[in-house]
Predict the 3D structure of the following.
Amino acid sequence: MFLRQVLLCFVGLSAGSVIAAGIFAFLAIIGVFPRLIGNTHTTGHIILYETLMIVGGIWGNVMDLYHVKMPIGGPFVLAVYGVSIGVFVGCLVMSLAETLKALPVLNRRIRLSVGIQYVVLAIAAGKLLGALLYFMKGFGGL
Amino acid sequence: MNSDTVYLKLPQITEVYKPDVALSDIAEVHCQNPSVEAKVKAIKVTSFAKDTKKSAAYVGSILELAKKIEAAGTNVQINNVGETDFIVKYRAKPYPPVLFEWIKTAFVACVAFCGAAFAIMTFNNDANVTDVFANLYRLAMGVESDGITVLEASYSVGLALGILVFFNHFASWKITVDPTPIEVEMRLYEENLNKALIQNHGRKESGIDVS
């Protein structure tokens, strides 16, 4: 029984390390944070951001697996959390589309030459509408 | 008449805070003859509009510099060991108000923390880690998992270890001297921006977007 526990422990450790490397390599390479840091001109605080990503990753995982309660709660904290996640996912989705070169390919296929800024605006508006519909019409099954 | 060789090393981008830009502000200049070096260093590269709050960028090339050095009447050979195209960015003030800086930092810090937490939670949900662990536990131990086992604990520890190794530091404590992943990505992003800026400036024709 003890040996089996050791085996499970080993499996868990390996799984955690590999998944952490995968997820965080994805976060680093997808370009959300370089863009945010670049646009806010706060390159000097990179170490702080990375530390917070480390703490956030560990905390999120523990909260998810063990259903640990947040030490501080309330609507305000929830609002901060919501806005932060919204910004993050918004950037993430766009970065993903950009990394996969979706817009350049589309532009080339239909030879779009003017008004790219409106295309970007339309994407943002579409995302907003999509998110609102999803939550208000209960697409999530709730 | 023997000509002196002037060595120029241009970085891709330089940030300046005064409107008049001399060559010594943006490039490393070396020449064996000190008087020639001083003369070349003082050559004006460009000037930005004074009394402007807006930041501006100037894109130039080594050819323009060569013309300016020639026009200054020095008989020199130019040896460029840096970039051939360069950007000079002008900002009126080196640092904006401190409070606003901290608000921005707090904002990005919030996004970093919540984003990382969110990413790992969505992954755990997507991949149904809880169920996979329950199955694994049953396979290994022959009994049903109660949800809190050595697997979850070691997974959490492994995750923390993996993140630390990946980011190569925790707060000010570094594992090796390598730059951190975000620092590397930041430099790559900056380089791409500079390249795009230079190429946008360089192309006069608008017809060829992809040829």
Summary: The CA atoms of residues 74 and 80 of chain A lie 10 Å apart. Chain A touches chain B through 72 residues (CB under 8 Å). Chain A has a mean pLDDT of 85.
